[in-house]
Amino acid sequence: MYKYLLLCISLMFLFSCEDESNTYEVGSSWMDAQSKIVMIDTLTVKMSTIMMDSTITSGKRVMMIGNIHDQTFGKVSSSSLFELTPSSYSLSSPSTAVFDSLVMYLTNTDFYYGDTLKTFKLAVHPLTDRIKLDNGYLYNKSTFNYSSNSIGNAEFYPRPNTDSSYVKIKLDQSYGQTLFNTLKNSDVTNQEYFLNFYKGLALVPSSENNAMLRFGINSSYLVQINKNTKEKVSNMVRMYYHTTSQNGTELVKYTLDLSPSPTFQYNKISSDFTGSELANLTPQNSIPSTSLGNKTYLMAGIGVYTKVEIPYLKSLKNLYENYKIIDATLVLSPVAGYYSNNFYNPSPLYYYVGDKLNHLVSNYTSDGSTEITTSLSESSEFQNEHAYNFSMTTYVNSILTEATNSNHNTLIYPSSYADVLCGKAVFGDAKNNTNPAKLKVYILGY
Amino acid sequence: MNKNKITICALFSCVFTSGLYAQNSSPYSYFGIGGFNNVDDARNISLGNTGIALEAPDYINSKNPASITAITTRNVVFNVSGILKYNTISSNQGSDNRLNSNFTNFSAALRVSKKAFIGISMQPATSADYKISSTIPIEGTALEYPVTYEGSGGLSNWGISLAYKLNDNWSFGGKVKNNFGTIVRKETISTTSEVEISRSVRYTGFGYNLGTQYKKNFTDNFQLTLGGIVNFGSKLVSKREVSYTQNQDYTNTLTSDLSSKNSSLPLEMGAGFSILAKERYRMTFDFTQSNWDKVKNTETSEKYYRQYVYGLGFEILPGKKRFETISEAFTYRFGLNYDTGYYKINNAGIDKLEATVGLGIPLNKVNLNVGYGYGIHGLQKNVSIKENYHMLNISMNILDTWFKKKYID
Fold first, then answer.
1. 3-state DSSP call for residue A380?
2. How far is residue A407's CA from residue A355's CA, in Å, rounded to a whole number?
3. Residue ranges covered by each domain of chain B
4. When you count CB atoms within 10 A of the terminal residue's CB, does the N or C end of chain A come out lower?
5. Mean pLDDT in each 10-residue stretch from start to end of chain B (409 residues)?
6. Residue B140: its chain A contacts at CB < 8 A?
7. The domain B21-402: what is its CATH number?
8. pTM score, two decimals?
9. Taking Cα atoms as reference points, which of A307, A308, A310 lies closest to residue A283?
């Protein structure tokens, strides 16, 4: 019997057990990792300022109106052109209807850029050309004529982010009367006919402005326009009319709204770099940072991007037998003196994979669809420590693993595919004295 | 008795088919091919780990392949051994306790004829088993990431030994061993993600041992046994591999081969003597030298030097031939062993001193050896990590008689 008992005891030895220790720290002084983790910040970073031929500004549901003029970018001006769609092609009680007025409401909930302490001036002009899409889009350089005579003017102090931040522009009475008559007489029955008479409007800023305002075309731009009714509207043109009292009936007031088309709408943004630091910048002629005092520039709307190249990135492959990129971060710091409270550094910044010809190849995404954006880190009160941190790990990995040289680079811009945000920034390159760019690659060699 | 044989055979086949790795639970097992396990019978360990000049009529002495020639009429011996070890590791960072137990030996020996003997064995020779937390510097910065070092695996061997009895006094033995096993060193680094780099080395190689024992009775009261062994240095063919795993996503582990240089196990030479006085008091002494200084291409960068091991043991055998109680049949053992170690860490040799006591308990057809030992690993003052351990060794030797009819005693 005892033999079996002993066998059992012996068998127990086969099942090794180990007491789990708590700390595991003892012995660490002997350990020497065979893996190496190295932070490399000596890779050459080549930066330049490039300009796209044009950028798409249609379909963004945003009216960008304003002018900016300074030493760096010269003059940049944005008008917004759009078609109007009436909510109905006929009036209520047309036989007795009498026109009152035509009013444009512009609502600005969230965005301004530039000097908002000055009054802002803009004018409304009727379009004389029909807006036609170019392969489904409209670009910042697309041009359609509008009448030189304005049918409405506004001068106001921009007050974004308040409930009453809307602009009310009374449009020309005779223009309104003509529009009223067209609808009253049932001359048009659909949008196509309507456009033959009313091609749309252009909102044109006065060249005295030094600010950009954004008026949105969707429900998130709703602003209360009437204290009594608490009615909220977004950008639109409203026609007021009434029916006269007949046989003792009361006078009845009516409105008819005409909304800007989200599709046939774009921002015409022009730039004139004459005499500015970017005087030589054209889509054909990029400017390396070394020619601009170790600086690069970017500005939304007109397609000025900062291009970042890492020409010797592939040399990382030769450092270790096997390697992995743990992290790669590009830190760009806006050059002090090129921004202020009014002309603040844009947030967020977007970045794209660009090819040799400066075409956007893809955007940086976190999950395949969500664009990665970068905000200015506010960790420091000192201007030279303000910085944008761009995660470059995916880019570095794709360059290191690609079979053939793609020559892909990184293009940085203040607006995404999806919107037209205004903003400009000036970055230091790697050799900039005050705000140098830094590329930090953490590599694991094993 | 047949039932017993079946049980034993089943046990053997089970052990032989499964890979065996003992656990060491020691930071020392980080180095080289892992820490060496004490695979000997509890009798050897209790006698200061001696045995080159010990005959083995009722157990298996792995120290000397010639020793199996002492097997007599009970012509089959099975050995199962195990260890229970409680280890206290201390350094200036504090101390850790590790408790582990494992199987250390599985072997059998058979008397084929009056003069020829054969044995087989399966032993976990070395093992790597450590888990240590530390930090890894990020070169180029003042920062560091946490890292956990983990080791697992080890070298095992199975062997066949043959022994021949020239005459009643002199015997020879030889053993062929196949060493095999994989040692895995894992570095888990907590960066923005958890990165695991696992380096494995697969070793294979054959080893050859020779041994001899010579016995002389000077008077009835005084017997001298001399023994000698040579374990020839054996090549360890190494195949290195590294794999990378992120966030424990083992389905996407990247594995690549690393350049490999073959390593080796050193040439070992040992000599020993034992004296039996008044058929009751035995003293035994062993000296072994291992030429670790000749070993190249070790996985870790510690410096190797020649190893010397000295062992001294005393054994008190039962006073009577016939016993009334089992305690009268006990054999008492005491031993002392000093091992110079074979590698230096931070310029300090890692030596070891072990004191042991033990008991031999003869049961019907089973010879049970148990032992207790206390040891210090890293005696030198400048060794930064010391281990103090208590161990319990148990060996069970089952004696049996097979092929009865073939013998005409």
1. coil
2. 6
3. 21-402
4. N
5. 54 46 72 91 96 94 95 89 90 82 90 93 91 90 92 93 95 96 94 92 96 92 95 94 93 91 94 94 97 89 94 93 84 97 90 97 90 94 90 92 62
6. 38-41
7. 2.40.160.60
8. 0.80
9. A307
